[in-house]
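Feature request, filed as a ticket because there's no other form

It would be nice if the structure record came with a short human-readable summary line next to the tokens. Right now we just get the raw output. Example of a typical job, pasted below so the devs can see what we mean:
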Amino acid sequence: MDNVKRYLDQFAKEVVRDAKKELRNSKDSMGKSRGDTALGNSIRSEVVRTSTGFDTKFYMQDYGTYLDQGVSGNKNQVSYTDYKGKKRISDFKYTTKGPPIDILSKWIKKKGIKPKGLGRGRSKTTGQYISGFAYLISRKIKRDGIRSIGFFQQPLGVGLKKLNKDLLKELALDIKTYLTTYTK
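Raw output as currently delivered:
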């Protein structure tokens, strides 16, 4: 089964490489590439031998799943194209709460955005200072959601199409090697 394991390793590496490439080609809200980020660096794969054959596992930060599928808002539904090429509604949805305002405030400060005329106020519940601009961004994301960029589903679909064709060849090589080794 060495040829099959080697082939599955190669398949998984190609899917990871293509997913990272898709992520690099996508832009964030500021027009910058997402490729060299914690998410891009976290994408990896592993092929594990089991009692019934092999499992190919893919890993990434949880945030990657939200970016890949998108998140529906409470007014708009976000759809994505899965690895089979079918359009599906995202599994994730904002219902009553939006993204945390304090996280958005940190993001605004990090990006150097200085909104005019919105000022800062105190939260009635926590007493913390909040940015009015962060509140508006949170409300918009909650309403409209986050669109899917499909950086993982598309490369996985392409890889699976090739996998179905080529895996039988590798299995035949392993069987031939097994038979010639044990019949001598």
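Something like this underneath would help us a lot:
The two ends are 19 Å apart (CA to CA).
Residues 117 and 132 are 9 Å apart (CA to CA).
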